[in-house]
Amino acid sequence: MNLIGFKIAVAAAAFMHLVYPMMNHSSAPVVKDRAYYEARGDIVWEAPIKEKLIALTFDDGPDRNETAQILDILKKHKAKATFFVLGKWAKERPELIAREIAEGHEVGNHTFYHTFGDQIQDEDSYFKELADADQAIEDAGGVRPTLFRPPGGVYNDVVVKSAQARGYSIVLWSWHQDTGDWNRPGKQRIINKVLRNARNGDIVLFHDNVHGKSQTIEALEHILPELMKQGYRFVTVSELLEAKQREEMELP
After folding, report:
1. At what angle are helices 94-102 and 66-76 packed, to 10 degrees?
2. Is 66 exposed, middle or buried (0-12, 13-18, 19+ CB in 10 A)?
């Protein structure tokens, strides 16, 4: 190869070195995982904060037996919580939604039928399901929810876009605070999961509608007083997010 040919080859190689990374970057598929949605502020998993605040959340209710007992325990310990309710149960058991609101708890949307994100037939029907759940909650004496939790924590673009179109904040839970109580792993395992992993700003996942005899109720009788001894306060998800926002505004 002569000198001119060599220079042309070098120039071509330099050009492709610049172009190929850009081509690969632009054509690479976007991985829409937690990092993607969390960075965009589309979904909240937790709210790390200096204050010793924890948000207890309960999915799939209300259940006439379990929810009522949980409300009794929360009232006993002056603790607030957020209930992500199913529209079908809100419609059938409006008195429990009314009680949750009256006792200072927060009610969020958890779809009408407990539809998982990967089971969505089309955007219109999913959007209607969210609207129907909202209506059932409002008819029960609640206010229109501002929070939404997709069943099973399954999310995708349809879930996110539908929730945003209705003005919700999408809230999941701290991965280290998934109690697995729906699977009835044993009261002590539920207790250990929460107490051994407690951190400021946690969002803890429980259920107030469990198939079979719930172990959550007995576990709460141990969890609440122990965390209170450690200085934690139990707030709604919205209160936790507001506290986090205030803290960020105070930073220099």
Report:
1. 10
2. buried
Catalytic residues: 59, 207
Strand partners, 57: 82, 205
* Alpha carbon 174 to chain centroid, angstroms: 8
Kind and range of the H or E element at 214?
A: none
Say how far apart CA 109 and CA 136 lie, in whole Å. Answer: 10
Task: Give tens-digit pLDDT for 50-78.
Answer: 999 999 999 999 999 999 999 999 999 99
Q: Please name every residue paired with 147 in a beta bridge, in sequence order, or none if there are none.
A: 169
For 32-57, write each residue's pLDDT tens digit: 999 999 999 999 999 999 999 999 99
Rounded CA gap, 190 and 117, in Å? 26
Q: Please give the Cα distance from 133 to 124 (Å, whole number).
A: 14
Angle, CA 228 vertex, CA 226 and CA 234 arms, to 5°: 120
Structure tokens at 102: 């009256």
Alpha-carbon torsion, ordered 78, 76, 172, 150, to 10 deg = -120
Q: What is the Cα gyration radius of the chain? A: 23
Helix H or strand E segment including 58 = strand 53-59
| φ/ψ (deg, to 5) at 154 | -85, 120
